[in-house]
Amino acid sequence: MVLKKLEVLILPLVSVFAAGLVGAILIFAVGENPLAVYWIFFKSSIFSINGIGYTLFYATPLIFTGLSVAFGFRCGLFNIGAEGQLYIAAMAVAITGIWMDGWSAWVVIPVCFVVSFVGGGIWGGIPGLLKAKFGGHEVINTIMMNMIAFALVNYLVVGPFHRKGTQILETEFIPEAARIPRIHELIPFIPKTLPLNMGFAIALLACLATYLILWKTRWGYEIRAVGISNSVSTYAGISVNKNMVLAMFIAGGFAGMVAISEVMGYRYTFHDSFSGGVGFIGIAVALLGRNHPVGVILAALLFGALIRGSLFLDLNFDNLSKDLVMVLQGIIVLFVATDKLFKKILSVFRIG
Amino acid sequence: MKKFLAVLALSFILSVQAWAEVRVGIVFDAGGKNDRSFNQSAWEGAQKARDELGIYLKDVEPGDSSAVEEAMRAFASEGYDLIFGIGFANATAIKNVGTEYPDVKFAIVDSVVDLPNVSSLVFKEHEASYLVGMIAAMRSRVVDGKRVVGFIGGMEIDLIKKFESGYKAGAQRIYPSIEVVINYVGNTPKAWNDPATAKEIAKAQMGKGASVIYAAAGGSGNGLFDALKEVNGRGPCFPKIKKGKRIDECIYAIGVDSNQNYIVPGQIVTSMLKRVDVAVFDTIRRLEAGKLTGGVNIYGLENNGVGYSVDKYNRKLITRKMEKVVNLFRKKIIAGDIQVPDKR
Asked: According to the model, what pLDDT value does residue A189 have?
């Protein structure tokens, strides 16, 4: 029993380690010293307050999108739409913030939180509804909803909500009252330039909430039951359709909460293509994190550290660019997906 | 004593090295440094400075805009002397980091940042576009009773409208009745790197009778060159003489930013040159000479900051007569006799 629990931890760790080895071979092949490269990763992402801060900052949206994908998986649904959901939510939050200019922060911030969750939730809920009502596959529909989301926010940021007098595609800035505090405002001796904000704490709370919902409530039990087997759930009197819609709504909501850290905590505006693909990296985070909130946090921290370190690859090495991180992420996902292989290797050891 | 001398010598060597080498960092735009266009031009200028002036050079291609600011901050905190931001999208980052590090010099291309330690490098693209507009009109032919030239812009912003207005005015200077078909690839940054859409637009413009098309669209311009190769076939395209009759079925393109003539030899009439490389090199040289101050530096026809290219690939497409006319107008613009519009 203990061994089985450990196995959950061991497999992702082995995957990461194996990916590191393969990465080292690649780095060696292009003529750099793998140890020096990995040292730069560690140094830039963990060994300074600034480094840790940026790692956490980059990890924050990944926790949200990782949670989103993981929540879908728990109900047997594959949410590829996190990217679209977070764009819709970010635009909705920016517009809400601009419209609520003059209101007190005690009203605006909670309203914006709700808008971010509901905005993403509706965008995720529609494919859930299509699946429940008509059996339309959620993979296809979430991808298509992504396209609609990109086109819609493009229209809004180019047209009616574009900030006048700039060539950069941004909306007006949201008022002070709609902004959540940066970490340096709360803790002294933190560099003022650090974009890390309260969004990180909210991400951790979201993980806690996910754990409580999925494992401590009847709803969560039903959602997990549907994820394991539709027919058994139906036999047990659980409404499969209702739970699919609910799971997709919540998954979309988590993705939408990216707007909290990015719009309310960092940019204070909707910036075109601000996400840089975190909705898709979220899939890798969920896979590596084994669809568990704690796993998602750990995986997001790893990926955040990789993103942080990538900048210093460009700065310090002539033959490497930041794209190495994408290669490493790809190898990690590959190894996580082929976990059966590792299980076989492990079982051989056990017998031996 | 010996030890003391050794330490003294060592510290002297170290300090001399620190003094000797000027360190320059460069942060690119979304296109990346090998876009065969705008960013690449900046990179070539920086490389030239490295080879000729012996500077220490490092570059970063940031994935997203939060990395831009952090990259500049990393350069500044490691004691770099000059940091370039390539493209208007980096203006916000330059403004923030430039305020934090008032002792470090910065330079921004295509935007104006009002700080004492920031040089803003801007170009009079409309002037050179005027000249290539004239070349386009002179190279064009009458199709179905109309004379048409095309313009493909990248992202529909004020910067590209400068290219558009100059080009249109130049073409109409030659033939006042000429029709200029204007299309844009898009209105988001994706438009800089969408050759497929640019190709569709090019084909549609050809359908409307456009015989010369100018693409000011960064990486998307490659779509125009693709369309060109499909219509003209491989190899240089020239009017043919058959049975004493002059048959002209060629369609030509005009490149942008870098000299793109080599991409499809004999089918690109000329390239409008925006010498980002000259501006970058110039800025580094002034830093070496200790003469770099903040403020706006304008690169136009008068200081060869913009222009058009003639090389072995397009020599036969530009006649002496065309060159004479264009040079005449070049002088007129420099002298201020002609005001080229930079807005619609």
From this structure: 85
